[in-house]
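In the laboratory, one determines a bound structure by crystallizing the protein with its ligand and collecting diffraction data. In a computational setting the workflow is compressed into a single prediction: the sequence and the ligand go in, and a structural description comes out. We illustrate the idea with magnesium ion.
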Amino acid sequence: MDGVPKALTIAGSDPSGGAGIQADLKTFTALGVYGMSAITSITVQNTKGVLYRKDLPGQVVYDQIKAVAQDLGVDSAKTGMLGNADIVLNTAKAVKDFKIDRLVVDTVLKSKSGFNLIEEEAVQTLLRELFPLALLITPNIPEAEFLCGEKIQKLRDIELCAKKLLDMGPRAVLIKGGHMEGEKVIDVLYTGGEEFHYFVGDRVKTKNTHGTGCTLSASITAFLAKGYEFYEAISRAKIYTQKAIENSLNIGHGAGPLKHYWNVERCAEDF
Ligand SMILES: Nc1ncnc2c1ncn2[C@@H]1O[C@H](COP(=O)(O)OP(=O)(O)OP(=O)(O)O)[C@@H](O)[C@H]1O
Ligand SMILES: [Mg+2]
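The predicted complex, in structure-token form:
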């Protein structure tokens, strides 16, 4: 990896700028990584919810990945919203063809407001085609419940589900605890064997959590692009995301966005 680290997001567009490729590119920039994007879908959404999505043809997604991989090179990549099976298949093909081996798969299924961000029949394709290519998958609690087919109520349920998900092919599983209750937020990392690792943070009391998942997976991807091993990349990403939530912005009429640039504010004052 010579020169500036380069990260690619393969995800949907969020015009409100709090999630999707916009959040990912802001995160990459805040962390000093050159950001690139392959857009899978245009969504119509704001802080109040998702209204509509228009998926791009899978071939167009493949061609975007090819264009940047062959020209600039990709040190690490993440996937977010993939929309349908055609996009999943083309993404998996591109990841293989261009040998992207530091891949974070954020298992985006539905928006917070319940809008489908991937066709239900495409989920099997996601598991079969993309999970085995992933260094890490990052389901939230509802996604973990759906993928494991079981209700999650306590930490032990998360651990059992993480084991099941690891058997589906990724090299590591991080189940995020944002949707659980309690003063602490616990994300559980599983890489095999009998040990689990817990990332424990203070739960920020805020409604402004639009794009927390995108921001976490993008920041992990950024640190991977910089050459950190994945455990260290997750630890650093957790700190970055926690601060972005603590400084989240009370804008819009629903769940406001995170402050992705909490660590680079001085740049703005310099000019
Ligand atoms: N209120 C909070 N305070 C502190 N950390 C939080 C809070 N909510 C979420 N997190 C952290 O943010 C990250 C994303 O978790 P979350 O469970 O919200 O993902 P998600 O549901 O996929 O997000 P999104 O709705 O953006 O897709 C995790 O590391 C989680 O621990
Ligand atoms: Mg999410």
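The two ends are 31 Å apart (CA to CA). Keep in mind that any predicted model is a hypothesis to be tested, not a measurement.
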